[in-house]
Amino acid sequence: MERLELKLYEYNKWANGQIFNRLKELPKDVYYKEIQSVFSSISSVLAHVYLSDLGWIEVFSGKEMGYSLELQKQLKEETESKNLEEMEAMFLNLSERYRLFFSQLESSDKSLKIANPNGDIMETSVFEQVPHVVNHGTYHRGNITAMLRQMGYASVPTDYGLYLYLKQSGAIR
To answer: Which keywords does this chain's UniProt record carry (predicted)?
Structure first.
């Protein structure tokens, strides 16, 4: 039986795909349009989510949190400048990296000791942190939904319950 954490990550990949598909249906300027919101544009939201996901896979792979945060800082401007199609490809490549990493873990977990910026050490594991990665993506897909509505466009459903229904019905694999 597949671990719940892995099922959640597959949901996260599907939900991101839903958002990308919706954005590709809209006028090109929607992606970069600056608005008054939590983020200045949808492109900046997706860059933030991508860089956070990238940071976590680095930590899962054994890098220090400080390295991960510095990497995110270094790549921020470059990532924000990517167009929608480039960003989608980056997300897909990163999802493949996660899939390969998870397949190497098999059913066992990997313990992590994460040094927080204040100096404290958090003892956790990869599978304990996967719901955090997924929840972070869900939160920011909500930001994108709100931003689209603010610009006069509907978003697309990305609920976990819908995902489970579509998966069970065979509509998605």
So the answer is: Metal-binding
Q: Which domain holds residue 81?
A: 4-98+127-169
pLDDT higher than threshold 70 for residue 34: yes
pTM: 0.94
What total number of domains does the chain contain? 1
Q: What is the dihedral of CA 3, 167, 88, 76, to 10 degrees?
A: -40
Q: What is the CATH number of the domain that holds 40?
A: 1.20.120.450
Distance CA 142, CA 165 (A): 20
Place of tokens 């199609």: 85
Separation in Å, CA 11 to CA 83, 152, 153: 24, 27, 24
On whether residue 47 sits in a domain, the answer given is: yes
* pLDDT tens column, 108-124: 788 999 988 788 999 99
